């Protein structure tokens, strides 16, 4: 880390550093951290561990780069960043670093949220349990976190069956909205349905963002296979009936 910090500082040197690196600000490279994080996820999904090593390095560089800019502005240093996360992890794992015990991972998740609530109470500007849930993250992730926050104070279904009943209720309400043809109501009910599905993923310990990414990849793989079969038969999508396309889809699924 010392070596990486030295390299970053040299890149930012006002006299001998890189012109591009010297010009950057928190705002100008904020998107880079997001991009690098997604590339880490992609390497994991592809089980490409050589790339994972490189992508983790790229993500780590974002941390050191932002820390160097903060240090230049006398805001905080990289050591402060390390101290902050070290203290946070210690406080939020009393079953590891203090005389506490837990029975399972779900209990730890609930305890984690309760500890975070107590931490937020120390901040004068926090007025709600839902305050400071990041608004710039993907909507599925945010829905997941909002649900976790609500659960931490006892507002949640007791079991999976309650969530499934809610999903069925939301589907019925969406059907009514579609029948009525009201676009605003359709959007609202579709949103409620998606939020409920995220709650189901939370109750079953499934990350919704990961689940939808895998679903996207599966659909893309099968659709591309359909395209290949049509090409081999000298056919086009536009010339196929819905029934024929359904049969082709099932044919592709059967080969997996």
How much helix, percentage-wise, in residues?
A: over 70%
- Identify the overall geometry: globular
**CATH architectural label of the domain at 2-83:** Orthogonal Bundle
Q: Structural class of the secondary elements?
A: mainly alpha
Average pLDDT number = 90
CATH topology of the domain at 2-83: Helix Hairpins
Distance between the termini: 45 Å
Q: Which CATH class of the domain at 2-83 applies here? A: Mainly Alpha
Strand fraction: under 5%
Task: Explain what you see.
This protein has 256 residues and is an all-alpha fold. It has 12 helices and no strands. The chain has helices at residues 2-11, 19-23, 30-45, 49-72, 78-91, 94-97, 105-121, 139-152, 160-180, 183-203, 208-232, 242-254. Helix 1 crosses helix 4 (49-72) and helix 7 (105-121) packs across helix 8. The two termini are 45 Å apart. The model has no long low-confidence stretch (mean pLDDT 90).
In short:
By secondary structure, the chain is mainly α.
Kindly list the characteristics that best describe this protein.
Helix Hairpins; 256 residues; single chain; globular; mainly alpha
Protein topology:
Elements: H1 2-11, H2 19-23, H3 30-45, H4 49-72, H5 78-91, H6 94-97, H7 105-121, H8 139-152, H9 160-180, H10 183-203, H11 208-232, H12 242-254
Helix pairs in contact: 1-4, 3-4, 7-8, 8-10, 9-10, 11-12
């Amino acid at each position: 880390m010392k070596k990486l910090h030295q390299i970053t500082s040299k890149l930012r040197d006002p006299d001998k550093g890189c012109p591009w690196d010297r010009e950057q600000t928190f705002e100008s490279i904020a998107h880079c951290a997001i991009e690098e994080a997604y590339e880490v996820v992609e390497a994991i999904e592809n089980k490409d561990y050589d790339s994972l090593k490189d992508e983790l390095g790229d993500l780590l560089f974002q941390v050191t780069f932002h820390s160097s800019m903060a240090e230049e502005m006398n805001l905080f240093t990289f050591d402060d960043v390390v101290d902050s996360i070290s203290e946070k992890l210690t406080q939020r794992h009393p079953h590891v670093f203090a005389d506490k015990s837990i029975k399972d991972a779900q209990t730890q998740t609930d305890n984690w949220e309760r500890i975070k609530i107590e931490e937020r109470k120390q901040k004068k500007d926090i007025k709600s349990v839902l305050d400071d849930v990041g608004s710039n993250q993907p909507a599925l992730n945010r829905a997941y976190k909002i649900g976790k926050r609500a659960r931490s104070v006892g507002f949640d279904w007791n079991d999976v069956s309650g969530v499934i009943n809610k999903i069925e209720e939301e589907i019925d309400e969406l059907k009514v909205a579609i029948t009525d043809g009201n676009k605003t109501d359709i959007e609202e009910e579709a949103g409620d349905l998606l939020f409920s599905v995220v709650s189901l993923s939370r109750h079953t310990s499934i990350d919704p963002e990961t689940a939808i990414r895998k679903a996207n990849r599966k659909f893309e793989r099968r659709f591309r296979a359909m395209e290949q079969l049509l090409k081999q038969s000298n056919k086009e999508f536009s010339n196929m009936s819905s029934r024929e396309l359904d049969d082709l889809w099932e044919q592709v699924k059967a080969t997996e």
